[in-house]
Amino acid sequence: MKAVYLEKKAGAESLVAGEIPRPDPKPDEVLVKVYATAVMPTELSWMPTFSQPDGEPRPFPIVLSHEFSGVVELVGANVKHFKPGDEVFGVNDWFTNGAQAEYCVVAARALAPKPKSLRHTEAAIVPISALTAWQALIEKGKLERKQRLLIHGGSGGVGTFAVQMGRWRGAYVIATASAQNMDFVRALGADQVIDYRGAKFEDLICDVDLVLDGVGGETLERSWKILKPDGKLFTIVGATTKEPVSQRSRDAFMLVRADGAQLAQIGGLIDAGQLRVFMEAAYPLDDAREAYARAERGKMRGKIALSVLDETIVSEPKHQEIEEMEER
To answer: Which of 200, 216, 251 is the endpoint of a domain?
Structure first.
């Protein structure tokens, strides 16, 4: 099968295009014909990218990107809820090859029907970000109506979903963002948006029930002081040696879990118009290096997709819809 992959431990600049063997599904797995996947530069620093669960090096070639949208090609002997031809989206195992290829294998429990209202390129950028927001706010945070929610990084991949989920749950949503993204985050449903460069959030808010941090470092450490005594904080930014963090901040770190049932609920909210998906740009699979370079420059609203099969390619962001939201 056609794929883009790494032949050695290196960065995205070393990605090459070629052909590798097509994987076969195990009894509880599904083989998916990939239509689109998403770019996540941080994956290059994750332990599972280059290591097996026992710590031994993973064999090359290594295919990146673990969220995708596509069509079921084959199902394993024990799979009952999917059949060839079904349109699906999901997340496959971190320790296996990803979706920058014509096919990938995924556990059936990590799949859900693709939202009917989305193109494959749009659906492919949903699973990891939306599941992260869902598991932090709904599953772990038990967010309730009228609670005060603070989201750091309201215009990012996770942040855009978190703001909308907070609004859907009836919470009072506070988000930090850059000045240029404040109107956009308000349009997503935030009740209060703070320019993180123009003010210290801890000088403006207090008594917060739940914090979802997508920034880390000093921002994470300063967030503890604005929590209620029984408030909860979750961060999706791992600790680095450059910025030491407290033990409680280390304990607050969470990793997203593949969950097809939750993803099906998210898909339902998307089709119902409760959640909107924002794609910064889409590139052909062969332009994966360029896509990673764009992602690493940052300053995006949403994420970047890679189109594996022919779809309309958007090499530059189209923000007309966002601008119309801001005007309203």
So the answer is: 251
Per 3-state DSSP, what percentage of the chain is helix, strand, and coil (rounded to 5)? Answer: 35, 25, 40
Q: pLDDT tens across 280-295, in order?
A: 999 999 999 999 999 9
Copy the structure tokens of residue 229. 């005594």
**Quick check: is 270 in a domain?**
no
Here the CATH number for the domain that contains residue 96 is 3.90.180.10
| 272 domain-assigned | no
pLDDT at residue 186, as a whole number: 97
- Note whether residue 269 is domain-resident: no
Q: Are 71 and 33 in contact (CB under 8 A)?
A: yes
Non-local CB neighbours of 16 within 8 Å, separated by 6+ positions: 4, 5, 6, 7
Q: Are 145 and 158 in contact (CB under 8 A)?
A: no
pLDDT digits (tens, 9 = 90+) for 153-205: 999 899 999 999 999 999 999 999 999 999 999 999 999 999 999 999 999 99
- Cα–Cα dist 226/100, whole Å: 41
> What count of other Cβ atoms lies within 10 Å of the Cβ of residue 54?
6
266 domain-assigned = no
